[in-house]
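Progress against Task 2.4 (sequence-to-structure conversion) is shown through the following example record, which the project officer requested during the mid-term review.
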Amino acid sequence: MTKKPIKLGIEQLLTDKNDMIRGVRVGLVCNQASVNHDFQHAAELFHEHPDINLTTLFGPQHGIRGDVQDNMIETAHATDRKTGLPIYSLYSETREPTEEMLGDVDVIVVDLQDVGTRIYTFMYTMANCMRAAKRLGKRVIVCDRPNPIGGTQVEGVVLDPAFASFVGQFPIATRHGMTMCELARLFNEEFGIGCDLEIVTMEGWARELWYDDTDGPWVLPSPNMPTVDTAAVFPGSVHLEGTQMSEGRGTTRPFELGGAPYIDAEDFANNLSRLDLRGVAFRSCVFIPTFQKHAGKACGGIQIHVTERLSFEPAFTGIAIVKTAFDMYRDEFRWKDPPYEYEYDRNPFDLIAGTSKVREALERGDSLHQIKESWESPLAEFGRIREGFLLY
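C-alpha cells generated for the chain above:
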C-alpha cells in the first residue's frame, strides 16, 4: 500500500515557519519520538539550527529519551549528553514547569506524540506547560503529529471532573479522535487555560488516516507503546491497569495480552468470543510477564487481535474483558489497590475509567449494553464540542 506523505508540525516549524521562534529563547518539551522523517531528534535539530536559541529541555513521563520503564517512576532532572542543555523532568516533584525552570525561556515548544487515548499523560504535560505559560507570561507553540489510531472514531466514557487526575484532567472521551494541536485548542478555549497559544499543523494528514497509513516516522512514544497495534487496543486494555490482572507489561505485546494466574485461557477466550464484539478476535494464550504484575508467573488469558479497524470499539472491548474476568472469577478478581499516580488515594480503576459508575455497574452485574448506554449522552455532548476544534 502506498503511504500518504505528510509533513509534521515540527518539520513545518523548522522550515517554513521558523520565524515563529527566531530571536527568542526556546524551551522544548520532547521525548524520543520527537523526530523528523530522517529520525533526527528535535533537540539536536533545534540546537544545531542557526536561527534558534534553544536554552532548555523538558521531558514528560518516561524521560526525554524514553528510558524510564515503569509507568509510575518519577524521572530525575538531568543534563542532556548530546546538547549539554538542562533537562527538567515534568514527571518529578512537579508536573508543571516552575518559574525557575522557565527563567531562561520565552517560548515553550511542545512536540510530543500522543496515542489517541484520554488515559495518557503527554497531553496533560502539554496542558500543564500551557498553565505555567499563562501564569508567567510565556508563549506556547504546539507542533502537530498524527493521531495514530485515526481522527474519526470517538468512543467510551467522558471523564467526570470529580475523577480528574494526571491520566485525565478534562471531560473528554476515552478515545477522543483528536490531535495534539486540536487538544491544545480545546484545553485553551473550552476548558479555560487561556494562554498565548500558537499551533503548527501538519501537511497531508487527513482524519481517516492511521499512523501506518502515512509515511510518518514512528518511534515508540513510551516503553510499553511499541507499535500502532498497541495504540489500537490501548483505549480498552488500559483499563486492566486498574485491576490486579496483567495488562501485558513485561511481555513483547503490552496491552495486546491480558490475563492472570487464576484464569483458564481457553474458557476466558471462549466466553469473550461469544460476545461477538465487532472487529476483534480473542486468541487464548498463556504468558509470563518478566516484570510488573505477576512477574515470573504463568498467566492464562488472551491476545487481542484487531480484525477490522473501522468497526472495532476498543473502549467497549476493554470493559467487556474486565466484566468477563469479574463475572467468571469473582472470588479471585481484584481491583488494583490505591494509590495511583502517587498522589491519588482513590480506586485506580475509577481514575482510569474517569468515573466510578463503570466499576459500580460491573459490581452490580449490569449488562454490557447498559454500561455502554450510560456513555451515550455525555459522548454526544463531547462530540458536539469537539467539532469546533478540529483542524483537518
